[in-house]
Write a structure and sequence with these properties.
The structure is a single chain. This protein starts with a helix and ends with a helix. With 278 residues, the protein is α+β, with helices and mostly antiparallel strands. The chain is built from ten helices and seven strands. Strands 2-4-3-1-5-6-7 form a seven-stranded mixed beta sheet, sandwiched between helices. Helix content is 56%, strand content 13%. The protein binds adenosine-5'-triphosphate (ATP). The site of adenosine-5'-triphosphate has 17 residues, from helix 8. Catalyzes the condensation of 2 ATP molecules into cyclic di-AMP (c-di-AMP), a second messenger used to regulate differing processes in different bacteria. Its EC number is 2.7.7.85. This is Diadenylate cyclase.
């Protein structure tokens, strides 16, 4: 009897411990996995993970159906892949480790920032845009949402400064060495300037639009980022999202679109966009 009571108490204690420790454990793993997915999104690694998932499922199915030869072949392929992966993805791995060490891993995406901070950032972008529009200063400002833009950030020059209208205007002044190309904003930081974006090949774009606008549309076709363009020729302000170009925006229209498009994403929509075709 005594023994049974002791066993029960022991079990209860272990169950209590299991609950708290397991929940913390699961939360940590979920957070790390989520951040890892955000990190690799938009990079070549996404395609690779999809390929690996297919291979894993095929291996499991072949084992279940006793397809011995197919199963053996798939297992050999997996072994070769595991050895080849660190070599092929060496740049991505290095970047991920650098990010982890540099603290970028924990940068809060724009869409998940506190509302006041996001609203302050939008105001700075709108203020810079209006000033540059009035002075006909060409500009291309990219705001990262869920898709990681690390590969594009790497094409430019690292800035890593707090976003302000003054900083943006300073970068795009025509004599500035950083004025050519795009700036990319990640969270509340201006990550890099002079970045090269992919050009859109769309035939639906007006002929009067040059490469600055094509670059903004191109980026928005390949990622979920928002890009704001100020035309050097006309001072007109445009915004792109998902391949759509919103042209000749007033200050209020630009502000409202930014508020709308940068509103917080749910984890579900973030994850579903991770698996969208690029
Ligand atoms: N692939 C690119 N990525 C980022 N920026 C680019 C890219 N291609 C061009 N640009 C920027 O666009 C500028 C050239 O703009 P261009 O006059 O061709 O475009 P536009 O759409 O007509 O704009 P604007 O109305 O300002 O003249 C370049 O100096 C450069 O700063």
């Amino acid at each position: 009897m005594e023994y049974l009571r002791g066993l029960k108490e022991n079990l209860n204690l272990n169950l209590d411990l299991f609950n708290i420790v397991s929940i913390i454990d699961i939360l940590i793993v979920a957070f790390v996995l989520y951040r890892l997915m955000m990190l690799i999104q938009g990079s070549r690694a996404v395609q690779l993970i999809k390929g690996l998932a297919v291979l894993l499922v095929a291996t499991a199915v072949s084992s279940l159906l006793n397809l011995n030869t197919v199963h053996w072949l798939l297992r050999q392929a997996m072994t070769v892949l595991v050895v080849a992966l660190p070599i092929v993805f060496q740049p991505e791995l290095r970047r991920a480790l650098e990010k982890l060490g540099g603290g970028d891993f924990f940068v809060r995406p724009l869409t998940q920032m506190a509302e006041d901070d996001r609203s302050a950032l939008i105001n700075e972008v709108v203020r810079a845009t209006q000033n540059m529009s009035a002075s006909r200063t060409g500009a291309l400002i990219v705001l990262e949402r869920v898709t990681g833009l690390q590969e594009l950030i790497d094409t430019g020059i690292k800035v890593d400064g707090l976003v302000s209208a003054e900083l943006l205007m300073n970068i795009f002044i025509s004599k500035s060495p950083l004025h050519d190309g795009a700036v990319i904003i990640r969270g509340d930081r201006l990550a890099a300037a002079a970045c090269v974006l992919p050009l859109s090949e769309s035939r639906h774009l007006s002929r009067e639009l040059g490469t600055r606008h094509r670059a903004a549309v191109g980026l928005s076709e390949q990622s979920d980022a928002v890009a704001v363009v100020v035309s050097e020729e006309t001072g007109a302000v445009s915004l792109t999202l998902e391949g759509i170009l919103y042209r000749r925006l007033t200050e209020v229209e630009l502000h409202d679109l930014l508020v709308k498009f940068l509103k917080p994403t749910t984890t579900r929509s973030a994850l579903s966009s991770l698996w969208q075709k690029r």
